[in-house]
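User: two proteins, same treatment. go.

Assistant:
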Amino acid sequence: MAKRRRSNGDGAVYQTKDGRWRATVDLGWAKGTRQRKYLSGPTKAAVSRSVREALAQVESGVPLTRDGIGPTVEEWLWYWHDNVQVRRVREATLSAQEVIIRRHLVPNLGRVRLRELTPEQAEATLVRLEGPGFNSTSVLKVHRCLSRALVVAMQRGLLTRNVCTLIDAPTPRTQEVEPLTKEEARRLLEAAGHRRNSARWVLALATGLRQSEALALAWPHIDLDAGTMATRQAMTRARYVHGCGRPATCGKRPVGCPQRTGHGPELADVKSRAGKRVVTLPAPLVAALRAHRTAQLEERLAAGSVWWTEPTAPKGKSWDLVFRQPDGRPVGHKRDYADWKALLADAGVRDARLHDARHTAASLLLLLKVPARVVMDILGHSNYQLTMNTYSHVAPELNSEAARLMAGALWEDEADDQGAPRRRSGD
C-alpha cells in the first residue's frame, strides 16, 4: 500500500505506541544546535492544527510557548508591549500601557488562550472595571490597549478576529473643568512666597505649563531680559520593569523587583509639535524667576561637592534645571504633586488637582478677553477646538460680554448701563 504524503503544514506527524499522535516542528539553528519543538495530542488532526499554529507563531516573531498551541493573552500582551510598542509610542504612553496590562488585563484575561478569547470575556472585564473608583475614560483606555494588541496579533496570523470590535467601547463622560477662582489663585501665590521653589507655582498659575514641562524647564530656555520662556523639553517619569521575567516571579511591583531594569526621570520631547512654543512672561513672574535663580545659586554654593552632577543631555536639551531638590537633583513628579497639596493646605484653598492650576491659567486668560487663539498658543494646544471645548465653562460670561460690545457697536452711546438700547423718539 502506498504511503500517504503529508499535507502541507502537517510537519513530521506520527503515531506512538500508546496511540497518541506526535509532531516535530523545526525551529532552525540557534547557538550551533538544531532547535525543535515536540507536540502531542489525541488525534492527528489536533496535532496537525497545533503544528500550523506553532509555525505561524514562530513566523510572527513571538517566542514559541511550551505546548506550541499559541500564546496566552498575558504572554502576547507582554510581547506586544516589550517588542512592538516600545518602538512605536512615547515613554509616557508605554508606562501607562504597562500599568493597564499589569493591573487590569492580566488579572482578568491573562490565562485565556489568545485564539480562544471571546467578546464576552473582554466585555465582562470592562464591566468589572466600571465603578466609582474607575471612570469611563479609564475603562476606554483599557479597551483601546487590548484592541491595539489584538490588531497586531491579527496582522501576524495569531488571530482571525479582534473581539474588541465586536463589543461597544465605553463612552467617556466629559469631566467638567473646575479651575480655581481669582481669589483662590492669589491666596496660593501669597502662600507660595513663603515656600522653597515658590516660582514653580507662580509659573503654573500664570502660564499653565504642564507638570512635565515645568519640571524640565531649563535656564538656557529662559530669557529674563526679554521676558520670554521657550518650552523645549519635558520630564518623563521614572520607568522600571521586572528583571525576573514575564510574568514576574518576585511578587513585587517593578520598582521593588530585585532584578529590575529601567531608569529614573529623563528628558524627552514635549507632548506635541504645538508644545514647542515661546511664551512672553508677566513682569511679576520675571521678577520671581530672578529671585529664584539667586536663591538657587546660593544653595549650590552651600552644597559644594554634594551638588548633583548634571549628566550629558541629548542634543537640544539641558539639565540646567530651574526647579531642583536642595542637592540639585531633579524634582520628581510625586514630590512635586505632594508640594502642591501642601501649598493648598497652607493657603486654606479647597482641594484641587495639580492640573487644575493649568485650567486656572487658561480660564483667567479667556475671562480677561485674551483671544482664544493666543490662549491656545500659550497652552501649547494642537488645535483651536480643543481649547474652546475644554474651557466651555467660560462661554456664558464671554457671551454676555459679546452682547454688551455688540450693543455698543451698533447703538453706540445709546446703550444704557445694562446693555439694552434706548428707543429713539418716534420709533
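Protein 2:
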Amino acid sequence: MASDGANREAQETGNGRAELPYRLRQQALLGAFARMALQTRDLDALLRRASELCAEGLGATCCQVLEYRARDHAFVIRACTGLEPDLVGTDVAAGDEATPASYAFRTGAGVLANGIQAGGHDGGRFHLPEGLAPPGLCHAVNVPIALGDESRRAYGVLEAWGTEGHGFDRADQEFLAGFAGLIGIAVERHQGDARLRDALDHQVQLTREMSHRVKNSLGVVAGLLRLQARDAHSDEVRHALEDAGARIATVAEVHDHLWRGIHQLGMVELADFLRELVAKLQEEAPGHGLACEADPKVISADQAIPIGLVVNELVTNAVKHAYPQGTGPVRVSLAVRPDGLRLAVRDEGIGLPPGFDVSMRQRSLGLKIIASLIRQLDGRLGIEGGGPGAHFVLDIPLA
C-alpha cells in the first residue's frame, strides 16, 4: 500500500498538480456553472462561459463547444477558449471520424486521446483537425452533448485540447461530461423557448386575423343598416337604424385596432383609437367641429369597446341636440390620472334641459346604453358647469 501511495504521489508530481485540490476545483467550477445555467437565458453567454470554465478546470490550452449541423454534416464552433475569437461561427468538418470530435459525436461516447497531434495519428486512430489546432497540442478529451428529448439527438460535442506533459484521464472526461449535460439542458430550454415564441407569434397572427374578419363582418352589418335607414319611411326608424349602425361601426373600429396594432394581444392604444373614432364621427357630422385630445394609454379591448361606445353616444347626442339652430364644436378629451382615466365630452350649445338626471334614469335608448356601459366600466359620470353647453365627465378606474 505504501508503494501504491508513493506511485500516486509521484504521478501527481509529474503532472504538476495535487490530485485532491485539482478535483475539488473542478467540482467548484461545475457547481458555479450549474447555477449560471439555471439563471440565464442567454445561450451564447452560457456556452462561452462553459468553454472558459472547462479550460480552467482541466488546465487545457483550448476548449470549444461544437454544434452539429445536419444539412451539410459539419460542426459549427459556437464558443471557444484558447483559439482566435473570430473562429466562433466557423465550420469544422464532421465527416473525418479519425478526429476525436467526429468519433465522439457518431458513437455517443466520450473519447480520451492522449499523445496525438494535428495531422498526426495515435496508433493510426485519432488526429487533431489540421489547420484548426494550434501547434504543440497533443492531448484531447471529447464528450457528446446529448439532448434529452424523445429523438435522443445529440446537439454537438464539448472538446478540450492539452499540451505535452498534461494528459487527460477518465475523471477529466467525467468532469467534461457534467458540463455537457448542463449544456444539453440549456440548449433544450432555449429550443423550447424558441418553439414557444413561434407558437405565441402564430397565435397572435391568428387572433389578428380573427379581429380583422370580425371588423370586416361588423363593417358589412353597419353598412347594411345604413342602407336600410335610407329606405326607412319614418324619421324615427331611420334615426334608430343610423344609430345602431354607428354603434356597430364603433365596435368594428376597436377590432380594426386589434388586428393592426403592435401591442400585446388583446390590447388597444386608446388615444389612437379615440382620435380615429372622432374623425369618423366627424364624417357623419359635416359643419360641426369635432376634436379629440388624448393622453397615450394602452388598455384591454374589453375596456376600449365600452369607452368607444360611450364617446359615440355622447358625441352623437351633442351633434343632434346641442345646436338646434345650426352647428358648433364638440370636444373629446382623455386624461390619464394616477387613479384611472378621465374622459370628457363637451359642447358649447344650449346646455342640458332643466332637471336633467345625471344618473341616466331616462327613457331614451341612448341614455340607457350609456348607463349600462358606465356600469360595465365601473365608472362614475358627472356634469360640470362653469361654461356654455353640456360638459360630461366620466371617471374610469383601471385594473
